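Standup, Tuesday
Yesterday: got the pipeline producing structure tokens again.
Today: sanity-check two examples.
Blockers: none.

Example 1:
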Amino acid sequence: MGILNVTPDSFFDGGHYAGVRLSCARVDALLEEGADLIDIGGESTRPGAPSVPPALQLERIEPAVKHALERGAIVSVDTAAPEVAEHVLRLGAQIINDVSCLADPALAKVAAAHQAILILMHARGSMTDMGGFSKYPDHGYRDVVEEVRREWREARDRALAAGVARDKIWFDPGLGFNKNARHSLTLLGRLNEFQSEGVPIVLGASRKSFIAEVDGASPGDRLGGSIAACILATKLGASVLRVHDVRATRQALLLTSAAEAVRGEARGA
């Protein structure tokens, strides 16, 4: 899943793809790099980012959504606003990526009406209220895996009650969202424990602040950690990887797969 933030203030690429020409060119680049899905958002979810009215979100993203659809892409839209979801699903988007853990059940009703896939990402409250990157008290979770599981199931049940089909709901543990670096690393390392939910697992680790736990790197220097997280996540059951760097991530995954195939052949010889 290639990321396209049509925003002025996203933590890594804010302002890089604002405007019709730049956002559409980014769609083309992501597809050329091998993205299977394009995730388009018009509202930053970095800590402290202000909420963006639905009309402004649509003004930012609609040209890119239309362009991606014209290119034949599978389009996901990153929004928690039912009005935005309704509009883009009418245009032809197939997925709604909700980073609010279904704070507004009306979003699920919209997804159900259009038979769209709904990605429910775990979060506790708005990122607007968070004090900083990977800033969350250690004692905020006793067992972050089990508490994320429980709270996500509650959101899933609200979505089911709103009419979303069970096979249309995907799970994202929400690395960095109301979690500190240790929480995010724990979720990544124990990702396989979520396979029992029986839904596709989406992982968004790309360039995130928890990577800096190992060496203090800035977002621009976190490609290695981002790729390592993706390789580990695929081994632990992730089905969808949400990334900024499609070509590099895809290359790393293909090489890992090729090397493992050779190793398997050697063992079978």
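Example 2:
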Amino acid sequence: MSLGFVGTGTISAAMVRGLQRANYDQPIVLSPRNAELAAELAAAYAVISVAASNQEVLDQCDTIFIAVTPQVVAEVMGELRFEPRHRVVSLVATVSMRRLSELAAPAGRLRRAVPPPFVATGQGGTLLYPADPELAALFGLLGKAITVASEDDIDVLTVASATMSSYFATMATIDRWLFDKGIAAEQSRAYLAQLGVGLAASAAETPKVSYAQLVRDFATPGGLNEQLRQHLDKSGALNSYATGLAALLARIKG
């Protein structure tokens, strides 16, 4: 299965690196939109080439990943000539299946997918809709493929994927506090990273335990964990997450 990427940014590069890490040996064609990054990837891996134009990507490949920003997706796709043979996979969160069918006509197979940046190292889950066994196998090389039952489901789960920067903002706040209290930067960085690894592993290794239960399990009554969580709850910090998520969903649906 030859793969073409229209748009060579963070997610495209992560997918390419993850596939090469998994020894994917089929041709991969990159668009020249980010010439420096595309050239870097082509120089690193023998199966990768850089097309002269976005249209050339479509001419050479059957499976096309659309990986440009929401602001330019209509402009970029409007200049392309799709064919019925094309399978078009949108990685753009704000493009619905209906809109994709308009932009990619007359392409025969349309899909939406949401791979996280860490598929570069074979980690994380990639959302996929609708079901596509061949694509699920491909994303399985990058971590875990998660096929969802409806477009509403992928919209809602896409909102959850938008919490990554907020997570690191929380870690950055703690990191600055530790530094201000005299902890060396490298020590703080290493400790917080391992704390995150341990917490993620605790959730991943106990899939039947709810997050609500993990909140209780990691908070000794009267202890420090409970005190900080209660402080955040009373201040409204935790509830603000819900309102922020609702705003993101409205943007995706809008």
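Quick observation on example 2: The chain has two domains: 3-148, 164-253. The domain at 164-253 is CATH 1.10.3730 (ProC C-terminal domain-like fold).
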